[in-house]
Amino acid sequence: MIFDSNDRQQPFDRIGDVLNQTSSDELKKQVLDGFHDYELAEALVRLDPVLQEEFLRIYPPNALADVFSEMNPEDVAALLVTMNITVTSEVLNAMQTDDLVDILEAFDERDERIRFLSMVYQQKRNEIKQMIDFSDDVAGSIMNDVFVTIDPNDMVKEAIKHVVDVAPDIEFIDNVYVIEQNRLTGVVSLKELIGAGNEPKRKIHEIMTDNVVSLRPIDRVEEVIEVMRKYDFMLLPVVDDDHRLVGIIAYDDVMDAISSESDIDYSYLAGLADVQEPIDRETVRSNLKKRIPWLVILLFINLITGSIIAGFETTLKLIPVLAVFMPLVLGMAGNSGTQSLGTVIKLFALNRFKTTKDKWIHLLKELFVGFLNGIIIGAVMSVIVIFFQFSGGSTLQQAWPLALTISLSITSALIISTTAGTVIPLGIDLLKIDPAVASGPFMTTVNDIFSLLIYFSFATLFLHHLI
Amino acid sequence: MAFEQKNTTQDNFVDEIVRFFESQPYEEGAVDSFLDEYHPADIAAALSIVDEDERIEWFKQIDMPTASDVFAFFSKEDARLLLKTIPDKLAQRVIGRLDNDDIVDLLQSLDDQSYVDTMLSAMSRPKRQKIKQLWDYKDNQLGSVMTDSFITLDANMTVKEAMKTIIEHAYFKDYTANLFVIDDHRLTGVIPLKNLIVARAKERIYDIMDMNPLQTTPDDNKEHAALRLAEYGESAMAVVDKDGMMLGILTYDDAMDIIAEEKEDDYTALAALSKSDIDLHNMTIMDQVRGRLPWLLILLVLGLLTSLLLSIFETPLSQNDGSRLLASRLAVYLPLLLGMAGNAGTQSLAIMIRYLTGGNPLKKKAMKQHLLREFRTGFLQGLLIGVLLVGMILVQFRLIDGHLTTLAWYTAGVGGLSIFIALIAATFLGALIPYALDKLGFDPTVASGPFITTISDVLSLTIYYGVALIVLLPIYV
Asked: Is B420 on the interface with A (CB under 8 A)?
């Protein structure tokens, strides 16, 4: 090895240095092989164009395929456009189908997608066409299509030989799937198979596990995550309606899915239009692109709050103190709405809504929660307002109308906002849209509108007492 | 083998197991051969949905090592309940077979010290020592979740010898996808089982291993390590001490749980929820209220700050008709201004928190650049939103008054200027506050969404009313 493994330099810098050296291509390739694919991927996107070209030139296509599978699909798409056709075609054909689907989907233009798809062999091309139909958030979109299968009547000896034969072409052989009459009937882990090596003549059906946990391609990614976490699975088989094995889902894609699913939820809750990049790749422009859409949308929704207040201008002029407690009422309603929204989105992410009944039960609970929180916060608020009025020199006679207006408003606003924070994401889910799009800021603004109407209605009701 | 259509849902497996146990008495050995075909997680699930009496009765029927495997899948609550009711002898056997990190986790959650000692006393000396080592790692350190259920090979072994070692040990070790290569007591390489089985029998492990095993130290933050494992797409990461001695591994299954929990914590903090695990069926209404009410009360107190400030500003605004008109006009844009600044603050807070809790340790320089970038971002979005707001206010005045007065221009100017300054401040502070908290050694996620909103409320209010009192009050009066 040229480099000491204790070198304090970052892998990225070291990879850049390797490419800059004047040594032979073969030597450079060998040194690059010593890095992990993820490190090579991270380096490749950051290198300047000259070194990038050098990298793509000396690194063999089938190894490049592994590096590409560690990269953002968008970055791969950008690279592919610059590469020559022979290499591109070899790289694409060496890639896993699920990764290829992601990359092809990263091209904005249909023509480009078709151009690159045409470089892939016929059989793989058909599989890709099938997978492109799967939406992003189902099991089918993260499954691998290569796996090892054996027959239940095989002997252990034969099965081991088969696994050894196919191992070089298959990424995950940690589980071997037993297929009988085209159906998945059992599973043997590689560990068990090797452990059974001292009884070479035993039949596979004697050592296999019969009850295989599996999912269907259309099951949601949330369910995949739940099952993988619950069973500590490394691999999970995916079967079609006839119980035919169509793919396997591997731990690495699930770890990514856990990250990306929760990143999406998090970004939406914060009112960001996109998931963020590593810190050294973010620019002011990419920063603005994520935030401005929501800010502009909110500005226009806020026209409604503005008009509501403008509509009550006379009331406000008569009772200026209303403005003092307005942000507080709106803020509290917004907060409890966000709490409810957050709870629903988390329950979705943890796959806790299995039936429609679960959703109704949750809604009912939220109603009670909103009611209880509303009453408690309302009671606390009435005490505070009375105290506030006393310190301004009012008597109890003068203080109670305002206290009543504000605490009744806060109680009703909390009940409504808790309900809205639950009903709106549940409703969006009914429309088959990711409920997380009912983002935090959107919910808050909707609740602002409700709360303002409540606040000024109560104020108008008690108007003659308040003046 | 008779072929029957099997339903693949896990619920059915659980039902089948429950029905089997209900159909006692069963023949000698029947329990073992029946349960052999089910995953321990399903058996645990079946036991956890029945009454306590049945659970204990059934659990006692299960043989070792299955009983221990099943036990490992119980929730902490169920595990504790069960331990209290089974004989110590059985408990010792069940606990003794668990992974060391799980033993530590379990024993540390028990209050009864003499019980813990009873359990430890049944273990072998080396095992006790290993547990003692793990005992002191803090909850957020990798050492607290690493496992020692893996296989090591000697660098000088031949492939044939290595395979023999694996066949001997595989049954007792959970993780075998990668084998770790030790030379002179130090971790020197890693080799996937897959590569080993296709290698020629006489090759030396040293020649075919990968010399750069993914590794870290036990005092590493467990979330950083888990995210790194996910980025590398590997199934395990070696944990070594400073001399390169191998202490354990972080496996993909623990990493999944760590990542999921970490991201959940970020999420709940941003939504002002408490960190309790959300469970639809077990969570009562009172649990929910207990989780949320403290947050709401804290936020109420913080919200009172805005009321206090506003009441100070309202005094000069309630003198005569002119100032009262101004007060009501200002109120019209108040929710808009506070809402927008709060959102901008939450956005940059969320981005900063994700950097702080993400997988890669951050360089100071990158952080400074990020803060500078946040300032520029705040400036640009403040400018854009400010200009839009000026336009909006002018249109509204035009609609109300029928023409554009000097008053309209000034009001629009004040609104635009206020939102411009408020957005810059909120965007920048949204990034700065969690960063500063982190620097001072606090958990940055406590600067949650609603918290930053309140801070930006106070700021925006002061800016808005401050500018308005200076510029607009003389004109309106």
From this structure: no
